[in-house]
Amino acid sequence: MTETTSGPARARKGGGRAKSAGLRIERIHTTPGTHPYDEVEWDRRDVVMTNWRDGSVNFEQRGVEFPAFWETNAVNIVTSKYFRGAVGTPQRETSLRQLIDRIIKTYRKAGEEHAYFASPADAEIFEHELAYALLHQIFSFNSPVWFNVGTPQPQQVSACFILSVDDSMESILDWYKEEGMIFKGGSGAGLNLSRIRSSKELLSSGGNASGPVSFMRGADASAGTIKSGGATRRAAKMVILDVDHPDIESFIDTKMKEEEKIRALRDAGFDMDLGGDDITSVQYQNANNSVRVNDEFMKAVESGGKFGLRARMTGEVIEEADARHIFRKMAEAAWACADPGIQYDDTINHWHTCPESGRINGSNPCSEYMHLDNTSCNLASLNLMKFLKDDGEGTQSFDVERFTKVTELVITAMDISICFADFPTQKIGENTRAFRQLGIGYANLGALLMATGHAYDSDGGRALAGAITSLMTGTSYRRSAELAAVVGPYDGYARNADAHQRVMRQHAEANTTAKRMDDLDTPVWAAATEAWQDVQRLGEKNGFRNAQASVIAPTGTIGLAMSCDTTGLEPDLALVKFKKLVGGGSMQIVNNTVPQALRRLGYQQEQIEAIVAHISEHGHVIDAPGLKEEHYEVFDCAMGERSISPMGHVRMMAAIQPWVSGALSKTVNLPEGATVEDIENVYLQGWKLGLKALAVYRDNCKVGQPLSAKKKEKEKVTEKAEATIREAVEKVVEYRPVRHRLPKGRPGITTSFTVGGAEGYMTANSYPDDGLGEVFLKMSKQGSTLAGMMDAFSIAVSVGLQYGVPLETYVSKFTNMRFEPAGMTDDPDVRMAQSIVDYIFRRLALDFLPFETRSALGIHSAEERQRHLETGSYEPTDEELDIQGLAQSAPREPQPVLKAVVEAPKPAAEVAAPLEAHTSAELAEMRLGVSADAPLCFSCGTKMQRAGSCYICEGCGSTSGCS
């Protein structure tokens, strides 16, 4: 443990307690006389990142230097995201050493300048320990530190911002400007709009006010225009409204009504996918919305009572509302479109360390940072798997001593960063320096729990998670009190001393009453108890350097940079993962945490190998040889046949919240079949269990989400059957497709069309009883370039069809392809087309594909869209089904030519990697037959996965909003 030394007292600027001479820094990992860089083997890598959909190169830098033990994906992400300087110039960073040095030398210099260290030797130890921890992926700062520290640009270190807005046009316009500047810098912001008077109140001129929902439109448009950090992703943004605001129902309905608009426009042929050209015409899509509720409202919901909606300017009740009605509307909207989330105001402010300086009104976009308005928080996260010790013979322990020392090191560095940091606005800079909010957290909790044989939804798992969280925050506040003795408490401490100490007692009392479960969590609880005793003793003596210490952030990009299996406090996505290989290629592996868990549970090596082989083949543990059923729950994941229940996620959040200064970034996923009542129950239980905030997501509730789990399950069964047949045939034969030509006389359909004013004709000929087999396209004058290309394209498609390429394959590849001419058509079933090719294959799908196939591809006739408006379903009735048409459009089985061959061995990567999987999320979908509730990455086209309340691309590290 680091400690302070006594020395000549120095008066703190502005008065206050005397300060001691500085910190003595103790070595944790490093060796005197040896630099951490000299203790590892380094090698050179080539980083080439492509968009798998079109093969284009997104990023390329060759010859970068990294430790040999770094995984390929972490190398790719750190090189492409964090190395500074233009690629190909001498200024470009080429080694991880340069990147780490740029950061740690800045921290050391600032620490020395502000008298944090007792001696230059302590400063050097601090630098080396920080370098070792970053080099070995033991922890990571948030992305802005990697982006900005040590560069000529402003050294912004914070990822989380809270703004404020008052009931004046000047303040509202300042909100737009400040938010835009934060988005430009690559970060996100949140704020509460409840000070703005409602549309039911009068202006001083006598007219009606616009209301906050009206002003949300302008801010939403701004967020959609300013690409965060210059990247191709939307800005991260949170908008909050108090439940007693008279416009609360309009606020709740905003995104649900827009979601209905999205569906209608999509059915009319517009491109409404996330990132699509036409989605920008829809409002309120660039923010997460949350309703801030209080205990009075929640009690009225329980009792069925009334609740007063209050005027913003006078505070008087202007309308009595039914609390259950409002609560129901919140749940209905969240069921329909995942917004709004919920924040529990009284709980949030009950844990507020600085109430004398103002209430906590808002949060950052992912709801983990909650403090005063116009403040910011810099984050860092510990990799929990780095502290799990294997003591041999299947026994494990959590390295309490090393975890404590690393936490102290990181908190010290985080506080130093505020000394040199730049901020986007003067108000935020002044308040952040005055309160010095920090947000230490962790990643890999889900992996740690599984590796130690704990189910995520279990008393043992929750006890271990709670113990680690309590130790982390207790250690952080103890270090904060030690720092206060050296460089003084935060400026706002004197005014808030009683409240701050009260909150410390609340943390300590929760630690004392927490349930101990087993040999793993008990020693951690004991260390946490000692830490909280020190916190109270030292805090009363010295005060505290920081108004807050911890949050649990999404850890998206930094989690991948640390090669974490799980992000933040999330469980494992699935038991198999997608691993990139050095030198290119990839393979499927069973998570390394599975063998560790099996050893912890007492299984022998032969049994472990058999169970791992079963998981590798099936993607789950059900019916794994030798695995006891009572151990199945240990391997429950976010996806799959044994996915964790919604309340399992809520209970884990409740087990952690009492020892987190801020809150937790996490979304509670619900299955598609969940009801509005299920969401009401989640919101109600979140309040009763003491959470500060909660967001939900019902699978398939948004338009842009991929196909449903049912469709995926059908595809999985088909793919598995085809793979089994193919494997049996390939052992003795070589497969060769055979062309199946059309007869001399064949039925056909000729269609005239116009797309964006361009006219053309399409003739589609089919087999008498076997579906489409030939397409002819006539465009422009004979001999022109366009006519020639259309002829060649027709021949290519026709030959493919006759060799057995399914029509749905062509449809999935060519619909939504964009180029001119494009626009309105004269076809009532396809009113808008992105191009001629887009129109052609939509028309062919309508004419030749069965309803289920094209419905899964989002292609419906005008009649079906009308049916959906009237009945809520595109599905035709039994009387409407065209049985003969369905039979004719059934796929043909190609006939192979059999030829005896000797089967050549396949490369390991080819054997292991499933067809068309590019990330672990896509692999889980294919193996488990479920659909991940995530969009595709804007940069590389792969399926993203959840990281707290955000999404992260495992392929390139891009996020959906949070840094």
From TrEMBL:
Name this protein carries in UniProt: Vitamin B12-dependent ribonucleotide reductase
Membership in a protein family: Belongs to the ribonucleoside diphosphate reductase class-2 family.
InterPro entries in the cross-refs: RdRp_reductase_class-2, RNR_2_N, RNR_lg_C, RNR_NrdJ/NrdZ, TSCPD_dom
CDD domains attached to this UniProt entry: RNR_II_dimer
GO molecular function: cobalamin binding; cobalt ion binding; nucleotide binding; ribonucleoside-diphosphate reductase activity, thioredoxin disulfide as acceptor
Keywords, comma-separated and alphabetical: Cobalamin, Cobalt, Disulfide bond, DNA synthesis, Nucleotide-binding, Oxidoreductase
Any Pfam family the entry gives: Ribonuc_red_lgC
Catalysed conversion reaction: a 2'-deoxyribonucleoside 5'-diphosphate + [thioredoxin]-disulfide + H2O = a ribonucleoside 5'-diphosphate + [thioredoxin]-dithiol
Keyword Ribosomal protein: no
Taxonomic placement: Bacteria, Bacillati, Actinomycetota, Actinomycetes, Kitasatosporales
Ribonucleotide reductase class II vitamin B12-dependent N-terminal domain residues: 47-137
EC class of the enzyme, as a word: oxidoreductase
Gene behind this protein: nrdJ
Entry cofactors: adenosylcob(III)alamin
Function: Catalyzes the reduction of ribonucleotides to deoxyribonucleotides. May function to provide a pool of deoxyribonucleotide precursors for DNA repair during oxygen limitation and/or for immediate growth after restoration of oxygen.
